[in-house]
Write a structure and sequence with these properties.
five-stranded antiparallel β-sheet, 4 helices, 12 strands
Length: about 180
């Protein structure tokens, strides 16, 4: 946190959790003036960019959406006040929509964000390992190296054992009991 909160145990606890998880504050000066705090997670999402969450002074907590086309709020959704609409025949219909529950206090927003991020980013990605959907980077790199090596080796063998005759037909040389035979 760029702002140092000494003496408040809730802020110190959040700061300690963020340090342990490698979450960093990447808030710009303009965002500070607007009352926004932006946090960057140590993992990358789609598009090979770091995942970021922000806490806004308006009460919203949002995913910043830098790995997709838009950001979305992670605030809890609650039922809105019912609205009534009159139909052409004189009947009324009741409509109950959903709205985001605002979190007005900054420390409450940070605590809510940390719970959400731990559950939906860290634990979800840890479950990928258990479900077999995750491949460690070293295993991926080794597979790529093996593929490149075997393709190169196959090309060498093809060049060595499959010579092309001047008339365009392929010629294969066999050695049986020390005797060379050409097969056309």
């Amino acid at each position: 946190m760029k702002t140092i909160y000494k003496g408040d145990s809730r802020y110190e606890k959040i700061k300690e959790q963020m340090d342990l998880l490698g979450i960093t504050d990447v808030t710009t000066e303009r965002q500070v003036r607007n009352g926004t705090i932006v946090w960057r997670l140590p993992m990358k999402g789609r598009g090979n960019t770091h995942i970021e969450y922000a806490s806004f002074s308006t009460g919203y907590v949002r995913n910043q959406g830098n790995q997709c086309h838009s950001n979305w709020q992670i605030n809890k959704r609650v039922d809105d006040e019912p609205r009534y609409f009159e139909l052409p025949n004189g009947d009324y219909r009741k409509y109950v929509g959903k709205v985001c529950k605002m979190i007005p206090i900054e420390i409450d927003r940070l605590e809510y964000m940390m719970k959400y991020v731990i559950k939906n980013e860290f634990i979800k990605r840890a479950n990928y390992v258990q479900q077999g959907k995750f491949v460690p980077q070293w295993q991926y790199e080794t597979a790529i190296e093996n593929t490149v090596f075997h393709e190169k080796r196959a090309d060498e063998y093809m060049n060595k054992f499959a010579n092309v005759a001047p008339d365009g037909t392929k010629e294969v040389i066999l050695i049986i009991d020390g005797h060379k035979y050409k097969v056309i």
